[in-house]
Amino acid sequence: MKSILIKNVFFENRKRNILIEKGRFKSLDAADGAVARLVIDATGKAILPALYNTHTHTPMTLLRGYADDMPLERWLTNYVWPYENNMTDDDFGRGSNLAAKEMVSSGTVFFNEMYFGIHKSVDAAVVSGMRAAIGLSVLGGHKHTLSADMIDAMEDLKDPTGGRICFTVAPHSVYTVPPEEIKKCAQVARRKGLRIHIHCAETKTEVANCVRDYGMRPVELLDSLGVLGPDVILAHCVQVTEKEVDILAERQAVISHCPCSNMKLGSGRFPYELMIKAGCRITLGTDGASSGNNLDLREAMKFAALLAKSAGDPVLLPAEQVFDWATRAGAEAFGIDAGEIRVGKLADCLLVDLGNVRMQPCHNLISNFVYSADSSCIDAVICDGNIIYNRI
Ligand SMILES: [Zn+2]
Questions:
Q1: pLDDT range class, residue 72, cuts 50, 70, 90
Q2: Fewer CB within 10 Å, N- or C-terminus of the chain?
Q3: What is the CATH number of domain 4-49+340-390?
Q4: What is the 262 CA–ligand 1 centroid distance (Å)?
């Protein structure tokens, strides 16, 4: 792991030298003569924390544009699942690698994955230099599914990077996995010290079917099974009542808000006001490229903010807050000691080109990055103290 000196970089309103050693920020105000194995001249660039994507299905990049503009249930049953049944290991690898390239080039250093062919997602994280939480996916009736018992028997869950990769147990949802199996998944996860990753309360149909079949709404059902806790990541949580939001806050479960996927599938508006009032832990995800069509978490920040404001109040979800969800909160949810440019923190960061037309003028760096930037503004991405993307 090389030491890196980033010279003349714009941070907190002035130019500084930032020193990275052993994968962590060593100094945010290093002397000009500081010694490092690699020196980067970052004149005209700003440093920002990198982004953490808390809900992905990376091989689904192969389904980008395959089936658009229809409800979730028809999209899954008639298009996605039949396509997936024909996917091979090579497809999983191609899709994951494509996804990793797209994520890195748009400033993301971590993805929370739920899919099949897990060794291919692990490979994509290893090769790209990203961090990842790889889901051991359970999806009833699916050709490639695992089961709680199979996961329980796995003894070879190793992180080949020595710290960047962890595993989760990922029962797909309450509409594809029976309650007893979800409960077993949670028990296996906790026995093995793994987090749990599940879709929850994405659409009105999911809620109606859950009430019909189990007499409870999805969050209530998961809570009755003892699943909810600070080690659980729930994707979506769009169709939730105030009572369910209170349960999520009480259990300190992590919510992965995926605004682009929710809007494109017409799933509904994320109940931002209720979540904030209750004190929920909120992070940001893109979902797969088949529903959100890209894996650009920076873009998801903008859509999340606009979606919140679409209720008719421009004060809702300011740029700084949604930026915090995509950075510090995302890292914290997975126990990654990063997400902030601070001495001692893991060195995950971006160098942003202040000369890019989308960044000018720069009255407010975070505002520009959330509302105006695109991937062309990102010049370099550093993860775990290594440069994993560089256009400087
Ligand atoms: Zn999803």
A1: confident
A2: C
A3: 2.30.40.10
A4: 10
* Rounded distance from Cα 355 to ligand 1 centre (Å): 36
The per-residue pLDDT of the chain, averaged, comes to: 96
The rounded Å distance from CA 211 to ligand 1 centre is 21
| Domains in the chain: boundaries | 4-49+340-390, 51-333
Q: What is the CA(101)–ligand 1 centre distance, in A?
A: 19
What percent of the chain is helix, strand and coil (3-state, nearest 5)? 40, 25, 40
Going from the Cα of 390 to the center of ligand 1, the distance in angstroms, rounded, reads 30
Phi first, then psi, for residue 378 (nearest 5°) are -95, 115
Report CA(340)–ligand 1 centroid distance (Å): 27
Tally of helices (H runs) and strands (E runs) in the chain: 15, 16
For domain 51-333, the CATH superfamily is Metal-dependent hydrolases (3.20.20.140)
Cα 57 to ligand 1 centre (Å)? 7
Q: Dihedral of CA 328/17/382/289: which sign?
A: positive
The H or E element containing residue 169 is: strand 165-171
pTM above 0.90, yes or no: yes
pLDDT tens-digit series, residues 226-237: 999 999 999 999
Residues at Cβ < 5 Å from ligand 1 ion: 287
Q: How confident is the model at residue 307 (pLDDT cuts 50, 70, 90)?
A: very high
